[in-house]
Design goal:
40% of the residues lie in helices and 27% in strands. The protein has 245 residues and is of the alpha/beta class. It has 2 domains: 156 residues, Spore Coat Polysaccharide Biosynthesis Protein SpsA, Chain A; 77 residues, no CATH class. The chain has a 7-stranded mixed sheet, with helices on both faces. A two-stranded antiparallel ribbon has the order 5-11. The radius of gyration is 19 Å and the shape is globular. The termini are far apart. 32% of the residues are buried.
Amino acid sequence: MNKLSVIILTYNEEFYIADAIKSVAFADEIIVLDSLSTDATRQIAIDLGCNVITREFTNYSSQRNYAIDYVTGDWILFLDADERVTDDLRIEILKSIQTDKFAAYKIWFPHFFMGRFLFHYTDKVIRLVKNNNFIFENEVHEKMIVNGKIGVLKNYMIHLTYKGLFHFIDKKDRYAWFQSKMAYDKGKKATLFLLLFKPFYRFFHTYFVKRVFLDGVPGLAAASIDAYGVFSRYAKLLLLEKKLK
């Protein structure tokens, strides 16, 4: 029978980590890679029986690739501290890892914002993968490169994405700095066209094409902040080009 390992990256997640760990208690092992938290995150994980490793944060791909070396299971589920595996997803995961039909599986993530789940503002991300069959690339919004066919699980993961409006905006700003620096290092340029058109296109695609308008006012807010995140990325790239940051 194939064994399942779970990897969780953490930094100051004492308010979230316990519930995340408990939601994957069915796994054969849980590895927590902590980026030198200053709160009780590590102790909570230790008390709940996890294998806790500490390492200074470099980037998301590097952290995940580092944690993989400690895995002993046949399959790996990557989980964030603000995510929860539902009972239906647990059953589907345990069933899926006992077959060789796919080398990895994508999982649906409806975002939680303004007190509700936005079922049209969703992501579909590879999170369940056969061990020794993949690698992570990119510093932000890391990309998993898988050798083999990829399936999609039917049940969704609970993702307590944003703690509020300001947390949502702050998260977009922090990602924008990472993304703009990556673009700058690759020699990419910010233009007035990109600065004005790209945010508009992102709002249109999120709100109308993905039908986030069906999620009501929270959907409108999410689409607007998404567009702001794109604007922020190109604005920060422009600052880097002008040597202002």
